[in-house]
Amino acid sequence: MDFRKLPIRNLVRRPGRTATLVLLVLLLSFTMFGGALTLLSIRGGTKSLEGRLGADVIVVPSEMASKVNLDNVLLMGTTGSYYMKADILDQIRAVEGVEKASAQLFMASLRASCCSVAVQVIGFDPEEDFTVQPWITRSFKRGLGDMEVLVGSRVSTEVGGNIRIYEKDCRVAGRLESTGTQMDTAVYATIDTVRTLIKAAEDLGHDLKLPGDPSELVSAVYVKVSDGASADNAAGYINGHIRRTEAIRTKNMLTDVSDSMAGVSFVMTILIAAVWLLVFFLILIAFLMILRERKKEFASLRVLGASSGMLSSMVFRETAIISFTGGLAGIALACLIVFPFSALIEKMLDLPFLRPAAGTIAGLAVGTLVMCMITGIIASAWSAYKLGHVDVSMILREE
Amino acid sequence: MSLLELKDISKIYGELKALDNVSIHVDKGEWVAIMGPSGSGKSTMMNIIGCMDKPSKGQVFLDGVDISKESSRKLTEIRRDKIGLIFQQFHMVNYLTAVENIMVSQYYHSLPDEEEALEALGRVGLRDRAKHLPSQLSGGEQQRVCVARALINHPELILADEPTGNLDEANENIVLDLFRQLHREGTTLIVVTHDPEVAEAAQRTIVLEHGRVAREIINENFQE
Amino acid sequence: MRHSEKRAGATDFLLLLLTILFPAGLLSVFKGCPAGEDGSWMSCHWAEMAVLGISCVLLICALIHLFVPDPGVKTGIDAAVIPMAALSIFLPKNLIRLCMMADMRCHVYMRPFTAVLSALILCMAFVDLLLYKRK
Fold first, then answer.
1. Do A275 and A207 share a structural domain?
2. How many inter-chain contacts (A to B, CB under 8 Å) are there?
3. Range of the domain at A193
4. Which of A126, B47, B218, C31 is close enough to B53 for a disulfide, judged by CB 3.0 to 4.6 Å?
5. Residue where one domain finishes, among candidates A227, A249, A271
6. What is the ipTM score, two decimals?
7. Radius of gyration, CA atoms only, chain B
8. Residue range(s) defining the domain that contains residue C101
């Protein structure tokens, strides 16, 4: 037999105790890895949101602003159907400090080709757009033609296939990068295509309750202020001078998302810390109990010539095996839950959720494993020391 | 030639003098029994001879070297290299088989060698029990495994504490026969016991009382 | 007691537990998208029915695995469960299309649940097979 495997023999000998300790470490690594992965995903989602939100101010119809929670609507991408006069765009462009302004036209389809679910169609002006475009060109290199659409990463239609909206076939020209928001489930087209689709809907007898001719309507205007100009002033001016509109600072909306992200972060951090403390003390207690139980065994080994270093290292190897196994199992379990159910987690947290890169996940896994090992080793250090330095003469005295 | 010499050894625990100015010597190849009632200091003496404890006062010479002031690390080395220990309670590692218990001793000493360990088991008549766990062995069998374990590294001194204390008469005889055989081969034996029959098997008996050497008895009827 | 003499071990019960959870989950919390207002089903429904069918077969396998003590039967069932569980991982989406939007029930609940349960059942059968082979 290989005596370097003595720790394994001892662990196998007490399956109940070993399983309990492994489960404890599993709990720790599951919480640490799962929690950190969720946090990183939310952070990634928020970051991608910030990066993509090129606009300083978003102008929407005031009736819209009063009806729904705008933060959610605009940031999570649940756009909805609401309209205002297209000439508002020119008025906004004339406002002092406005460098760029670009209109978008939204349309919620009632029924798309495959499923009875509403597809959000977002129409933008390829000539002037600065919010959707930069994000699109990263995955799609040419201009978007008439009756062509780009789909979000989570619309499961093949590129090159067709998507049927109000009996009109739109060719899927490309798929966009994942953003972690509900923008991933939207369909993007030129404003003209959206107008054609609206027309098609009306021809089919759907009443979209448009306040005018679709060619004279827009849903939102995205505004970028020039360097040095104040976005607050521009928004204030628009609110004061352009009727039936509401100008919102995007920075305020991001703050709200950051706030709820901070809330989730805080809860997660507390949870991880609590679980860590719990597991640490339970391992500590478990090893103190083992200490009492195994004094004789270790004294016997000492008598046979094992040095205290050998015995301490034997305890540490047992702990390391337990921590490694439990840590690995916890990480595997977290992967098994967080990855398949990421859409569900996103839904429950209501925050943008973007999975970090594979390298980051691997680093996180290694970090978790190291933390589990360190926790186990620190928790068993006292017992390892005591067992290593067990008083050999007790072997006779206790008889 | 003396293998072991204790010079004016005392061991004091607080107020209690477990050993009080004890001096003895044991020659190479000699078989000595240490007797005495409970509390006479037998176990304390065994701990000191077995390098498991240090005296409060006095000197211990093993093979001519004073070991009374050595560090516990050094004592571990000396114990490993020169002394084979046998206990009343056997002290086998309960999750290892008989042969593995012997190999542990080899492992800490030098290198485990299963063939040699099996031979040692054969010597005590337990080769067929090699793969049994301690819980599957009788007390006598366990003690014989412990004898094999004590022998495996060819120690200069075998130190046995009440080796037959937990055994029936048949097993007691088997163990004593093993000791006789070892003695014939030139191994030095120190057996701590309170059983007169076990003591009579030895060449010489040292009787301890109240931490002092009360008397020494030479066994006239000693049979090789 | 040796493993081969055992009538039922921990893996038998875990396998049964998982195969009970599988159809139970599919029929309750983790079911796919509901029928449309006009009563018509979306494509994910057929994937769900197929997975449900497999999950019931797996449940029957687990019951046989539990009650038949013969190691040959047990390992045979393990060997059958492994490819079946693998199939049910790939059935929704890869073999039978799900609904268009990734935030619909079939993507959010049904498919991940199917993947996780199938993976666990597959691993459990594999572990059981290894345990029997080793004895």
1. no
2. 70
3. 51-249
4. B47
5. A249
6. 0.81
7. 17
8. 3-22+42-134
- Measured between CA atoms, the residue of chain A closest to residue C111 is A340
Query: Within 10 A of C34 (CB to CB), how many other CB atoms are there?
Result: 11
Q: How many domains does chain C have?
A: 1
What single-letter DSSP state applies at residue A112?
Answer: B
Instruction: Looking at the structure, tell me whether residues A41 and A55 fall in a common domain.
Output: no
Count CB-CB contacts under 10 A for residue A355: 17
Q: Domain total for chain B?
A: 1
pLDDT tens, position by position, A317-330: 999 999 999 999 99
Chain A residues with beta carbon closer than 8 angstroms to that of C37 = 116
Contacts of C93 in chain A (CB under 8 A): 156
> How far is the C-alpha of A341 from the C-alpha of A358, rounded, in Å?
17
Provide the shortest C-alpha distance from residue C65 to chain A (in Å).
Answer: 24
Domain's final residue, options A249, A267, A298: A249
Is C15 contained in some domain? yes
Q: Is residue B34 part of a domain?
A: yes
Chain A residues with CB under 8 Å of B91 CB are 296, 299-300, 303, 395
Query: What letter would DSSP give residue A245?
Result: E
Cβ within 8 Å, pair B91-A3? no
User: In the 8-state DSSP scheme, what is residue A73?
Assistant: I
Q: Is the model's pTM score more than 0.80? A: no
Q: Is residue B93 part of a domain?
A: yes
User: How do residues A120-149 score in pLDDT, each as one tens digit?
Assistant: 888 888 888 887 777 676 667 677 888 888
**CA–CA separation, A280 vs A376, rounded Å?**
7
User: Chain C partners of A340 at a C-beta cutoff of 8 Å?
Assistant: 111-113, 115-116
Q: Do residue B53 and residue A308 have CB atoms under 8 angstroms apart?
A: no
One domain for residues A264 and A227: no
